[in-house]
Amino acid sequence: MNATQIDRARIESLVRRAIAGGSLGTPSASRPDLGLSQDPPGWVDGKPNLRVSISARHVHLTDEHVEILFGAGSVLEPDKDLYQDGFYAAKQTVMIVGPRRRMLPSVRVLGPTRGASQVELAFTDSISLGIDAPVRHSGHIDGTPGCVLVGPVGSVQLEQGVIRAARHVHMNYFDAEHFGVSNGDMMQLKVTSHECTTVFDDVLVRADEAAKLEVHIDTDEGNACFLDAASEVELTKGGCGCHK
After folding, report:
1. 21, 68, 78, 236: which has the fewest C-beta neighbours closer than 10 Å?
2. How far apart are CA 3 and CA 140, in angstroms?
3. Residue 112 preceded by cis peptide, ω within 30
4. Where is this chain's protein located in or outside the cell (predicted)?
């Protein structure tokens, strides 16, 4: 989706809200969702409900690679729904093999399938594999290292697609309006935990119509801020308000 489509979709959402009797400026006590008399996706008691999740190492696959790895006619089998509607952890796992046969066994596949296979690791994972994985936003895999994926039936040589996923926040257009940001903006996340409070800059906004407010950080970042023991999380608009 390009910027023009994103802006149009957001405007359409705001128009529907205005028709339903809402204000285009400040949040109201009861917000409509796409013209319905209920809160937008993920909202609680008329306001955004922020969730911060650790995105552990995982793999995204194409339909073709699913069949190569798990057998002709195979499809991903949902095992556990993720917080974002329509996304899930599959029952299938693969082994990731790096240079000099260093490997990570049983890495979870996430669904649904994609147009290009992609491996998302934390920094410590990439060290274990001996792969110099760059920090990239999901889908931006040109020029990245590859690896070998091994399934129960076959293997796939990826020429590229191994990344350290950059931190980002999923949100819908009502969330974006609430925070005063747009798709592609950068935000700041503060995680308050005992003697380990951490501020993360460069949190990319990924806005669409149906997303629920959720920040994704990797396991290294989650350990660094002691997310499991956090007493408060706060998401704020970035200082420059620029797009990247």
Report:
1. 21
2. 17
3. yes
4. Bacterial microcompartment
**Cα distance between residue 113 and residue 66, in whole Å:** 8
Comparing CA positions, the residue from 183, 188, 184, 198 lying closest to residue 231 is 198
Q: What is the pLDDT of residues 160-207, one digit of tens each?
A: 999 999 999 999 999 999 999 999 999 999 999 999 999 999 999 999
Residue ranges and CATH numbers for the domains of the chain are: 3-53+167-237 (2.40.40), 55-165 (no CATH)
**Secondary structure (DSSP) of 67-91:** HHHH-TT----EEEE-SSTT-EEEE
- CB atoms near residue 38 (< 10 Å): 11
